[in-house]
Design a protein that fits this description.
It is a single chain. By secondary structure, the chain is α+β, with helices and mostly antiparallel strands. The chain has two domains: 2-184, 2-Layer Sandwich (BirA Bifunctional Protein, domain 2); 200-326, no CATH class. The protein is built from eleven helices and eight strands. The protein has helices spanning 2-6, 8-17, 41-49, 94-110, 176-184, 200-214, 223-239, 246-263, 270-291, 306-315, 320-326; strands at residues 21-22, 59-66, 81-90, 118-129, 132-143, 146-159, 162-163, 169-175. Strands 1, 2, 3, 4, 5, 6, 7 and 8 form an eight-stranded mixed β-sheet that branches. α6 crosses α8 and α7 crosses α9 (270-291).
């Protein structure tokens, strides 16, 4: 079943065959209450308020998302970038909501996640999204005690205390990569190949950078572009300023292929990632050498290739032997 949930077509066909309208993934840039889309329901709620979705029309959206807050808790099963597979409907009954939950259980069973091993925990969920206040019954779904998704039937939706055209809403979201991880028992982060030697945090940041690049988010000092810079700096700190090795470059390429499929975009922008990593790697090395007591480094431009950067280090008085120690590539077998 691994192939079925690594590529979009199988999941798309399942939900279309079960009466869902397919929505093409939105750009991850949100420009509303959060910098990035963090759940598929965000753009869908905007769409229904703009009359792009009919009452009781079941919709399916596999939405790539970025959740920056997860950068401090990266591990198997938790990542910054993932696909929030979302189904939703609006102005529906709770009975119709429960039928959609059943659709999900049928899908999970098809990919090898038996409902016999799924447990649930429910609560009353009160939240505010942009200009709306919502109250609903939320249910978390656990497979062998691991959360794989949540489903919420919102029965009260109001703006400034007054009801709007959307009276009720069903929001069902499951993490694609976590489902695949549980269904295959392979690494959460591995896609088409195994990369056991690469640190999980390195994989997480490469995947997030790849998703940003596919969405044409370029490095800058504000908004979404700042996150490119931030993730790059965090990655460089982990690998201590060095260039990506062969295995890491291959993993980055697989992440780009993966996100192009799920985002339905043709943009690659790999060089943007490499250039930003080189830039921040150069800065890391300058800071390290300054702490070691080397002088005359302040005038070195970090926006250059590593080869040219090393030449300028030599010219600034850094001994050849010290520069050679900086030119290291960890070859993984």
């Amino acid at each position: 079943m691994e192939k079925n949930i690594l590529y979009p077509d199988y999941i798309k066909k399942f939900f279309i065959d079960n009466g869902y309208k397919y929505f093409k993934p939105f750009s991850i840039i949100n420009n509303q209450d959060t910098v990035f889309i963090s759940a598929g329901i965000q753009p869908l709620l905007k769409s229904v308020r703009e009359n792009q979705i009919l009452d009781c029309e079941k919709v399916y959206l596999p939405q790539p998302v970025i959740r920056t807050q997860y950068s401090e808790s990266i591990e198997e099963g938790t990542s910054i970038a993932f696909t929030n597979v979302t189904t939703a409907t609006f102005n529906n009954s709770e009975e119709e909501h429960l039928k959609m939950v059943k659709d999900w259980y049928n899908f999970l069973n098809e990919i090898g996640i038996s409902k016999n091993n799924i447990s649930t925990l429910s609560d009353v969920y009160e939240t505010r999204w942009d200009d709306l206040d919502l109250i609903g019954k939320r249910t978390f779904h656990y497979y062998n005690n691991l959360e794989i998704g949540d489903t919420t039937f919102f029965s009260k939706i109001a703006k400034n205390g007054k009801s709007i055209s959307v009276k009720t809403m069903s929001d069902l979201g499951f993490g694609l990569e976590r489902l695949r991880w549980r269904a295959t028992n392979k690494s959460y982060y591995d896609l088409y190949s195994k990369f056991d030697e690469i640190d999980l945090k390195v994989k997480a940041y490469l995947s997030a950078l790849a998703l940003l690049a596919v969405n044409e988010v370029k490095p800058s000092n504000k908004n979404a572009g700042y996150r490119v810079r931030l993730f790059s700096k965090k990655l460089i700190n982990i690998i201590e300023g060095r260039s990506l090795n062969v295995q890491e470059l291959k993993y980055l390429e697989e992440c780009i292929i993966y996100w192009k499929l799920w985002q339905e975009k043709d943009y690659d922008n790999k060089e943007i990632i490499i250039n930003e990593l080189t830039r921040n790697g150069n800065r890391f090395i300058l800071d390290m050498l300054s702490e070691e007591g080397y002088k005359n480094l302040t005038g070195i431009n970090i926006n250059i290739s590593r080869e040219e950067f090393n030449k300028r280090l030599r010219f600034s008085g850094v001994p050849e032997e010290r520069v050679k120690k900086l030119i290291r590539y960890k070859v993984l077998k």
